[in-house]
């Protein structure tokens, strides 16, 4: 069957609100630097927002950032995610469509509002995320555009979606649809705390062959495999997973494919804001895999995309990624 | 009487939506590059937004940017401007308060929504602005915090407010309040097209002593004085205006005070986005004037603030302006 898309992602549809913060603020608020924590009420979100410095709003969401990257690289991408009928929902929809991603999910009327992620950027460029899931947690299985999923080489899902109940059920349905159509399922573990909450589910999907391509950073992989031995974790996670991709911050990234390991170094860059580094690395790899690019080159494409993202504030690419790839890693 | 504030500004309360655009797009849309044009309906705003690239949202508004700069420099500032009871209104209120500016204007229920300015940033860093004034055009005189105006050394107004009827009336009332309290009135001409629309009003205020401190860029000053001779315009505008400040892009800026001319060069900087350069120059000068800083040094402070703003996207300062001044122009 013909495929209209390279990658269709399902993810939280979030607008990021980024502001600078000192390390002391992160400590006082009892946050774990570099992690994502959920805020369960709008009041909690408002209270934190009131304490934050003046910020800037940029569309975000992990899987949404990834498909925006795929589209920026010239890939064909779609996105499924729930926003509310409000201004931030309009911003999210505008921005993802403006990057060339097909986005057809119908907005949800009434409360809660569109998801927002309050991101505190510390002087070292690390981001500490506080997410109010809002409308995003009410993505029902009925909102899935199943034709879009069937028409895509890869269905890409984020671990974050396992937190709220409705999207978790929707994900399971989406996986069925993709598998029935003979498509690959790619998955990102998202966050260490997310693995603490849903590790059993994730391990089952890794072991039973549900996940064809797995993305994780090193900490997440170790948490998933319940070990502190990277080599053991690679063997464990790669067993039923076709392609395993592990990002390692300034140590670069590695991939396992057919028991062969590929390592790529990180690209030198002045770190401004690490938000979206993993998302854009995944974009490069997914673009490559779906466009007949060898895996080692796909990893280099991911590294260039990640370097672009962390050189500025916000998790969506600003530079022309196609031109950047041609310049940095000529074919 | 004691003054609680150095500067209280009245201005449009706007959230900027900034996106990159090619020169060809500006031409196709029939826009005048570097200018501000008004959009009179939400439909017009939505139609342009739909054609724009993915953007980022940052609080803006000319006079609001200026008081945010005054506060960032350590000055005491207040702001008066109308937002709606919506998400962009919350963003605006949060951001101006987070910079340390007092902001007490009550939100306005119902339609229209909070003002937004669709800003197209061309590769040369110039910004072409398309403003939907929304709630901002309904600032009534009754919304003025007159105690705040009386308690400020300087009342700062933007020419843009002369476009909509209610704020124009509110400005006239605000000027009365300030004058009765023996305060100075500072005014920015805002935009050449704005002068085309309201030049008679502006000339009257320049000639009858209403305006104590006048800010303009070179083009605006020439338009106001209906001449193309800068020297003649300086003499003409300075007659009844105590301090005349003229910004001249890469040629720096000049001030006239007691018939003496002060020139300052522009600071070398990589131009990313010129949005807010004039606003922040005014911030430096107003901060200086209200804090016993000599006028020539105040102008240098303005130049450093303007250079900071144009080195990044968005019209609110990101760097620590106090530290920057101490580093760049030690006392």
Care to describe what's here?
2 copies of one chain form a homodimer. The first copy, chain A, has 331 residues and is an alpha/beta fold. Chain A has one domain (5-13, 61-111, 138-328): Ribokinase (UDP-N-acetylmuramoyl-L-alanine:D-glutamate ligase, 3-Layer(aba) Sandwich), CATH 3.40.1190. In chain A, 40% of the residues lie in helices and 22% in strands. Chain A contains 12 helices and 14 strands. In chain A, the strands form 2 sheets. In chain A, strands 6-5-1-9-10-11-12-13-14 form a 9-stranded mixed beta sheet, sandwiched between helices. A 5-stranded mixed beta sheet of chain A has the order 3-8-7-2-4. In chain A, a hairpin with a 2-residue loop joins strand 13 (253-257) and strand 14. The longest helix of chain A has 16 residues, at 165-180. The first copy, chain A, starts with a strand and ends with a helix. The mean pLDDT of chain A is 95.
Summarize the structure in short:
With 331 residues, the first copy, chain A, is an alpha/beta fold. Chain A is built from twelve helices and 14 strands.
Strand order in space, largest sheet of chain A:
6-5-1-9-10-11-12-13-14
* H/E topology pattern of chain A: EEHEHEHEHEEEHEHEHEHHEEEHHH
With helices defined by DSSP (H or I, 4 residues minimum), what is the helix count of chain A? 12
Rg on CA atoms of chain A, Å: 18 Å
Assembly annotation: homodimer
Overall SS class of chain A: alpha/beta
Would you identify the regions of chain A where 5 or more consecutive residues have pLDDT less than 50? none
Distance between the termini of chain A: 29 Å
What is the level 1 CATH name of chain A? Answer: Alpha Beta
The number of strands of chain A is 14
CATH superfamily of chain A: Ribokinase
CATH names the topology of chain A as UDP-N-acetylmuramoyl-L-alanine:D-glutamate ligase
Specify the helix fraction band of chain A: 25-40%
Mean pLDDT of chain A: 95
**Beta-strand content estimate of chain A:** 15-25%
As for the number of domains of chain A, it is: 1
Question: Which architecture name of chain A does CATH use?
Answer: 3-Layer(aba) Sandwich
Biggest β-sheet description of chain A: 9 strands, mixed
Judging from the principal axes of the Cα atoms, what is the shape of chain A?
globular
Largest interface: A-B, 27 and 27 residues
């Amino acid at each position: 069957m013909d495929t209209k898309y390279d990658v269709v992602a399902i993810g939280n549809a979030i607008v990021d609100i980024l502001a600078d913060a000192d390390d002391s603020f992160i400590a006082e608020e009892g946050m774990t630097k570099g992690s994502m924590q959920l805020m369960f009420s709008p009041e909690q979100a408002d209270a934190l927002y009131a304490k934050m410095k003046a910020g800037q709003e940029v569309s975000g969401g992990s899987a949404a950032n990834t498909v925006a990257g795929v589209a920026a690289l010239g890939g064909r991408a779609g996105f499924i995610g729930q926003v509310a009928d409000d201004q931030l929902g309009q911003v999210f929809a505008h921005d993802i469509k403006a990057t060339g991603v097909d986005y057809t999910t119908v907005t949800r009327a009434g409360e809660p509002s569109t998801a927002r992620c309050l991101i505190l950027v510390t002087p070292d460029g690390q981001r500490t995320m506080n997410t109010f899931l809002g409308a995003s947690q009410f993505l029902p299985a009925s909102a899935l555009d199943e034709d879009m999923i069937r028409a895509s080489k890869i269905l890409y899902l984020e671990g974050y979606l396992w937190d709220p109940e409705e999207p978790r059920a929707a994900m399971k349905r989406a996986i069925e649809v993709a598998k029935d159509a003979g498509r690959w399922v790619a998955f990102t573990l998202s966050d260490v705390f997310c693995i603490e909450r849903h590790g059993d589910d994730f391990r089952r999907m890794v072991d039973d062959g549900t996940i064809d391509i797995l993305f994780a950073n090193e900490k997440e992989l170790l948490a998933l495999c319940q070990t502190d031995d990277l080599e053991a974790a690679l063997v464990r996670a790669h067993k039923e997973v076709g392609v395993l991709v592990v990002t390692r911050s300034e140590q670069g990234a590695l991939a396992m494919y057919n028991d062969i390991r590929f390592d790529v170094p990180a690209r030198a860059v002045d770190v401004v804001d690490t938000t979206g580094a993993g998302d854009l690395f995944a974009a490069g790899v997914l673009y490559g895999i779906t466009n007949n690019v060898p895996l080692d080159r796909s990893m280099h494409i991911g590294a260039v995309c990640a370097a672009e993202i962390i050189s500025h504030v916000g998790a969506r690419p600003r530079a022309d990624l196609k031109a950047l790839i041609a310049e940095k890693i000529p074919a």
